[in-house]
Write a structure and sequence with these properties.
Blueprint lengths: L2 H7 L5 H23 L13 H4 L4 H20 L6 H36 L7 H7 L4 H8 L3 H4 L11 H22 L2 H16 L8 H4 L1 H16 L6 H19 L14 H17 L7 H12 L1 H22 L4 H52 L1
């Protein structure tokens, strides 16, 4: 069932998933802005306890939502493109050039900025913002980050603590063809079993990874794949206003869980916030994908573009938050409300501008390079067959 649907729909661009990705990036920026201002850098600093500022402090949920969306969008656009060795190789090349070049460029900027941060920062006090820029590192550490293997080898938290999700997502790309194979051979039970097996690995630490996130959250990616599969094979759609209500409900529940306003049951699996974030991330993705929202065209265009550049937004926002923190310190801004608002709006606006530049001059050219390599490979392969 559904193979003809997939062939006719695999190029479908689902705009609503793109702007949902933008909201995920926004949640991360709010979370890190809040974390950067919930401490005192100077003795006169005030710490805000206004709940409104932390209402959308859902960074962990935002990252999990990224994993779900990745699985979903990859299935919709690539489900019928990973059926043999040549297609799998092309898939890996495309994903490499989509993710790695922009990441490495941002890594260089973070390494350079760490010198600036160390020069202008005050005496270290152990705050969250400091480890990213003040921890000493070796050539071996840099290589672990460049190769996106630091979740295996450690150390974590260098340069940009938001980097932790990148090797995880890249490793999900590696198993994506296996998930598709399992789905084609065994139906929906295949991805479910893969997610469950990897989750068990996180509990027994079979491979001795420095961080277990790639195993513990694998079922979010597998679940996203299944949502994409259902989307291409099911016809029903949700009512727009019901969808709005359900999405708002998810936001408030996730926010309450994030802040401990909802007591989680003391039961294995259900006591872990991450599992709830995965569940609601799957629910939000399903609702958005199976709904038709009538949004103002201009608003929709803005949301779509913000989602499109969200990867670079995610890469650079912590550097820009650190710039704002240095500004607070040297301008001696102590008011609690001003501190958060300055950091958040500076990070939000500047990361948007930086991400737009990164997307245009780094991401898009990198994608084109990947396509050129694949095109040349196909031409060379055809020439070789013709010569034979």
């Amino acid at each position: 069932m559904g193979k003809s649907n997939i062939k006719n729909s695999h190029l479908m661009y689902v705009d609503q998933l793109t702007w949902l990705r933008g909201f995920a990036a926004l949640f991360v920026i709010v979370s890190h802005s809040n974390r950067a201002t919930d401490v005192k850098y100077l003795s006169e600093d005030q710490i805000s306890d206004l709940y409104l500022y932390s209402l959308f402090d859902m960074g962990s949920f935002g990252v999990v939502l990224f994993f779900v969306l990745s699985g979903c969008t990859l299935y919709i656009s690539n489900a019928n493109k990973v059926s043999n060795y040549a297609e799998i190789k092309q898939f890996y090349v495309k994903r490499f050039f989509r993710i790695w070049p922009a990441f490495v460029v941002s890594l260089v900027f973070y390494m350079l900025f760490s010198l600036v941060f160390a020069y202008f920062y005050i005496e270290p006090q152990g705050h969250w913002i400091e480890k990213q820029f003040l921890t000493e590192y070796s050539v071996k550490d840099v290589l672990a980050y460049v190769t996106l293997t630091f979740n295996v080898t450690g150390p974590s938290g260098l340069f940009n603590n938001a980097y932790w999700s990148l090797p995880v997502e890249f490793q999900y790309y590696l198993i994506f063809p296996l998930i598709i194979l399992a789905l084609n051979r065994t139906g929906v039970i295949g991805p479910v079993l893969i997610g469950m097996i990897l989750f068990v690995f996180s509990k027994v630490n079979v491979f001795g990874f420095d961080k277990d996130s790639v195993f513990a959250l694998a079922y979010s990616f597998c679940g996203g794949v299944l949502i994409g599969y259902f989307y291409l094979n099911l016809k029903f759609r949700l009512n727009q206003w019901l969808s709005y209500f359900l999405l708002l409900l998810i936001v408030f529940i996730v926010s309450a869980i994030s802040h401990g306003d909802i007591a989680l049951p003391d039961i294995p699996l259900l006591s872990d916030k991450r599992n709830w974030f995965v569940f609601f991330g799957l629910a939000a993705t399903f609702i958005v994908l199976f709904s038709c929202f009538n949004i103002n065209k201009k608003v929709e265009s803005i949301l779509k573009y913000y989602g499109t550049i969200s990867y670079s937004t995610y890469l650079y926002h912590n550097l820009l938050i650190a710039v704002a923190v240095l500004g607070l310190i040297h301008l001696e801004i102590h008011d609690s409300h001003a501190r958060f608002l300055i950091v958040f709006f500076f990070a939000f606006i500047s990361s948007y501008l930086v991400a737009a530049v990164s997307y245009k001059y780094i991401e898009l050219p990198s994608i084109k390079i990947g396509r050129s390599i694949l095109k040349k490979t196909v031409i060379d392969s055809d020439s070789f067959r013709s010569a034979r």
